[in-house]
Write a structure and sequence with these properties.
It is built from six helices and no strands. By secondary structure, the protein is mainly α. It is elongated and about 50 Å long. The model has no long low-confidence stretch (mean pLDDT 91).
Amino acid sequence: MPETWLAILLHQLVFQGMFVMKNIILYKKIGKQIRGKNIEATLSIAFFAFFICAALCLSFFQHPFGEIQLINCTFAGTLGLGLLLLNLLVSGASLMNLKDSWRVGVLEDQKTDLVTTGIYRFTRNPYFVSYFLMFATYTVLLQNWILFGLSICGFLFVHQMIIKEEAYLYSVHGDAYVQYKMTVPRYLVV
């Protein structure tokens, strides 16, 4: 798909735009910091930026290093666009459903509500699932082994953030969080 770089760029404008707007609106509303200063969040944000830059750079080349065509380009483009839309729907729903409980990383000095409704009935981590969708989408669109390897690294970074967040949520919400964990999967599968 020759205009892949444009699709990635437009997707990032919307995807990151929703994220930034949520952060600004919530910060103005609650008047408190909403980004945790923990290593997991910092490394993940740096990695996400690197992955996005790598995808954009690889999309500029006619035959980028690491490219492998596993599926027809037309099918890859159609599948990729569908996944981009799904990514935006999942991320938008998670930002809306979390309301004032949205945080970037763990802020141990702030207690937020345990949200179990909306998209949080299907996955405990929909915003992180949207990142997994982004990793998969860019890898499918560009059919690139480098992005595939980076996607695996991204999953590991996100998983570490989730483990820290789960420990925090258990410390704050106790049995209510345990019950939630027992009925809703961490990602999409049990």
